[in-house]
Amino acid sequence: MLNSELNAVSVEGPPGAPIVVILHGLLGSSRNWGLVMKALAPTTATVHALDLPNHGKSAHTREINFDSLTEAVLQWMQSKGLGKVHLLGHSLGGKVAMHLADLHPDQLESLIVSDIAPKGYEPHSQDILEAMDALDLSVIRSRKEAEEILSASVPGLGMRKFVLTNLVRTTPPEAPGFQWQVNLKGLLQALPEISSNPLCGKVGYHGRTLIIKGEHSNYILPEDRKIFEIHFPNSTFHTIPDSGHNVHFDNLPAFTEVLLQHLND
Fold first, then answer.
1. In terms of domains, do 186 and 207 share one?
2. Contacts of 144 (CB under 8 A, 6+ apart)
3. pLDDT tens digits for 164-183?
4. How far is the C-alpha of 241 from the C-alpha of 215, rounded, in Å?
5. What's the number of domains the chain is made of?
6. Rounded Cα distance, 18 and 72, in Å
7. 74 in the same domain as 160
8. Which residues pair with 141 in a beta bridge?
9. pTM for this prediction
């Protein structure tokens, strides 16, 4: 995969400012991080929010695993000549960030992991991906219609809205319709792989690491702290109050406050 095929949204900070690279979660994209970028740039940091392969406006690939995702991010970083960066990853992006930190610690100023642990998870998003795949887009005429159909299998309004950020108009405009922007079938096939432990058999990262947990999320359990301390011995832990798995959505002020403190340190 060519690094030019990896889409990014970037905001420049002041000269000499820290550089933050953001990796989103499964079915997310760079556009989910606009408010965080606004809080950090342009006054405090230069921020680059990437679309991981098979997400957003980035290219679809035949191979989807931690090695291929990490290599795409690494190639993009090196093509931009960024030097060392603060790498922030949420959920799937957090796993990719941990994998990259393990393989290429020299590329990082620090690692920031948002609400995910270095362990395997049940493929809990399979029902959502299957519901998306089952939606007959040939008969869909509006986003509202798609949302109504999805409501039976994706009952949470917030999750439906999030899923539908991936539904885009087809081109050309003379043939109106909808399509999924993500590589839906590829992600479904790769779900067991990307739900696994990104550090299986790996050492970890000994640089400065910030672990952020949502107060009401069960993605990071109390016993997972020992796993972090083994693989990331220079870790600081923060729990964000009044938040679930999508910490940066649920409590943006507290999330950005922790980020700013970490960058200023």
1. no
2. none
3. 999 999 876 666 789 999 99
4. 5
5. 2
6. 22
7. no
8. none
9. 0.95
